[in-house]
Amino acid sequence: MKLLHSDMKKGEVKVLTQSMDDLWYLSTIIEPKDIAKGRTLRKIKIGSEEARESAKKAVFIKLEVEKVEFSKTTNILRVLGVIKEAPEDVPLGSHHTFSIDENTSITIIKEQWLKYQIDKLKEACSEKKSSLLICVHDREEAYFALLKKYGFEILAHIEGDVKKKREESTKKENFYATIINKLTEYVERYKAKQVILASPSFFKED
Predict the structure, then answer these.
(1) Is the separation of the CB atoms in 61 and 85 below 8 Å?
(2) β strands within the chain, DSSP E
(3) Torsion angles phi and psi, residue 154, rounded to 5
């Protein structure tokens, strides 16, 4: 996350989100009664009363937060609230939702920033991309994931062409070689500093 502006005397900060982790951080910082403001799309009625149509328009809105919803499946942070300031064609007191993705600037105003919220903000603005790679596997399949603040991101799921036990040794070595190749690829691609390898029984030691 990038800190664009900060005025703690007024309780105001403006940030730019840059990753899914940033959305998670904001979901722990923004709370009901906060003020959120920024540019957003709003459905506006245009034309005469006889021939009115609705169209989405980019507007600047200030709202009082009622609810915050973070969904890692849609990669969206939803900040719902009541509109306090807006252009003339947007009714005050109506509800609106900011849909914040991985490249959104948003201003947050609090009456009082608590210490843990300030700490979270500082942590988010200094946070580097995850460098911890996870692989869980058995003799037949393997999952690869990156550890994130909100949970984990699945990178791949692979299955080995495993035969019966009498042929296990040959096929097992081939499948483990595939796992090793995948681990090497992801370590290089994501600059992973640490790898967690886990399995039932003794497979990880093989």
Answers:
(1) yes
(2) 2-7, 12-16, 35-46, 53-71, 76-85, 95-100, 105-109, 132-137, 141-148, 151-159, 194-198
(3) -70, 125
Q: Which amino acid is at 144?
A: F
Are the CB atoms for 160 and 174 separated by under 8 Å?
Answer: yes
Distance of CA 77 to the CA centre of its chain: 8
For residues 136 and 156, what is the distance between their CA atoms, to the nearest angstrom?
11
pLDDT digit string, tens, across residues 112-158: 999 999 999 998 888 666 679 999 998 889 999 998 877 788 999 99
- Beta-bridge partners for 35: 64, 109
One-letter amino acid of 198? A
Cβ contact 38:107 at 8 Å: yes
Per the CB < 8 A criterion, the answer to whether 102 and 22 are in contact is yes
pTM assigned to the model: 0.69
Q: What is the DSSP letter of 143?
A: E
Give me the helix-helix angle, 20-29 and 115-126, nearest 10°. 170
Helix/strand/coil percentages in the chain, nearest 5: 25, 45, 35
Residue 116 makes CB contacts below 8 A (sequence gap 6+) with none
C-alpha Rg value of the chain to the nearest Å? 24
- Residue 127: CA count within 13 A, CB half-sphere: 23
